[in-house]
Fold:
Amino acid sequence: MKDNARFDAEKSKTVRKVATASFFCNFIEWFDYATYSYFAVVIAHVFFPNDDPALALIQTFAVFALSFLLRPIGAIFWGNMGDKKGRKWSLTVSVFMMAGATFCIGLLPGYAALGICAPALLLLLRMIQGFSASGEYAGAATFLAEYAPTDKRGMYCSIVPASTAIGLLVGSAFATVMYTIMPEAAVNEWGWRIPFVLAGPLGIGAYFVNIQLEDSPTYQAMQRALKDAEASGAAGAPERPIHCLFTKHLRKLIISIGAAMLNAVGFYVVLTYLPVYLETAVMMPKNEASLITTIALITYVAFIFASGHLSDKFGRKKMLITACVCFIVFTIPAFLLMSTANFVTVLVVELIMCLILTINDGTLSSYLSETFPTQVRYSGFALSFNMANALFGGTASFICTSLITATGSTLAPAFYMVAVSCVALVAMIMSHEHSNKDLSEI
Structure:
């Protein structure tokens, strides 16, 4: 009995360490991304000086979107290495690369000093960010899912989107505090660089947290089985994970991309684009828009764990379908209400949208982890999640801003979200439920 109790205590301690490492790595990625989004207007001024502020903002978001083009390529690389070399290796190296690129952006001279080289270097560093980021969310979620107890996998995996929101929250709070205590001219000149430079020490901290962990028991068991089969002559050369994914699990991959579309668009629109939308389209004061987003993010973090718990109880498929239907019904009325520019009204609308978003986000990481078998789990998760984010997430702010400019309607982003929600709904109806299965059985 004592040995069993000691084993359970050690197992719980290990799971907590993995949860902490997964949280920290993903937090850094999204703190970095939030910094770029929340200071988008300032970055537009520094790197894209233009007489037309709307055009400069579109150029800034275009760089944001272009960096996502490397995410599918990064997903193939990190996923393949994560399935071959280990979850720990891919997660550790990718977060270190991400932090380094973000640190360099904080030191990058603007257009006034380097001319056209400044936006070109900004794009290069954003490309490096996009490449490395494609390994982090998937790596953190896969790592955690393979350690988590079967009946609490949804709850544990919800830590990953929670760390995403907290990264955004810290970025939003940083922006709010800086605009409150510093003159706007100082923020525009040098203050915006501070959160980028902080990525350096954060990346070093994440590296030292990760090197203390081992790969998951599920992954180690698969590696032992492969070695035993190879030693006994029962198997030939091991199949490359990415080749196996495309030849044996293509249907799962396509459905997973469709399911992840809503997360991609909903996340970037609700949590990163809306502050800029409220400021530039609704004409709300900058400090009010930032404050609303900060409150919404705190609420999002509180809701996300509840969604993970509910997905353990009711299943991933029901939760994800519910989110699709809610976005289809509520998005257009939400944008109509936000156009009032009334602080309380906009706040309530954002809180409701955050609640709907958490139904999706609190469930998606466990759903994607359960969709693919161990030998291609990292690759399948990384590629489906990052393809959706490359095509729909990273382009969300750019598309929404361009749609408003082209149509003259501030409702254009709402119609875009509804269309994406419909596609995600079809994908989820075609999906399968694996909530209560051991990952080794999938």
User: Anything to note?
Assistant: Confidence is low (pLDDT under 50) at residues 1-5. The CA atoms of residues 67 and 255 lie 24 Å apart. The radius of gyration is 21 Å. The longest helix spans residues 2-38.
